[in-house]
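Before relying on records like the one below, remember that each one covers exactly one chain. Contacts with other chains, cofactors or solvent are not represented anywhere in the record.
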Amino acid sequence: FGAVYDNWDLLDKQIRDNKIEKQSAIEQITFLHRVLKNTYADLQNKELFQFPVSGYRAGSIGGKNGNEFKPKGYNFFDGTSHKGHAAVDIFIKDANQDSLDDNTGKYVDILTHASGVVISINTEWEYPSEIRGGKYVWIFSPDSDRYCYYAHLSAIDVKIGDIVKAGQKIGLLGRTGKNAYPKRSPTHLHFGCLSFDNGKMTPYNTYRDLLKASKR
């Protein structure tokens, strides 16, 4: 048995690629969650939540009043075949879709919403890969029992096992991912959090937390 984050990363990819039975995945993630909680019991989210897209605020969140968060039909254990939209999309100004901010001409930093430990990353993605999230990062926050997912990055600046603080840069926004790459999709961060909820991995609506973070 290796480091708990290495095992979580392996399990994530087995679930993502539909290479493991659901019941087995649930049992494994329940065990790994307990180990994560014990291992990082002293890691608390002492900092306030941070808005995850540097230079942007709540007005860049897609939809109206958080209605883009649609958890119905979503099941983490369905992997690439999951339904629903258990997250919010945060859009940047990128009219020519080169992943550079139209105002600054630079890539946009993606920041940690809450302190935690990096438990999974995907650093490789090329079209026409079926991986929806493209290049992504999963971070576990022990005090809230939540797993947060940052998807469609162009580059990742952290590695599995890193301890990160709220507001820390973890990568750069891009257009990686099956549905984020096509021209029909504006450049955005797909940001979602799941509550452990006794192994159910229940979608948590981050909209109100993002509104508060946006006002700081």
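The chain has a mean pLDDT of 95.
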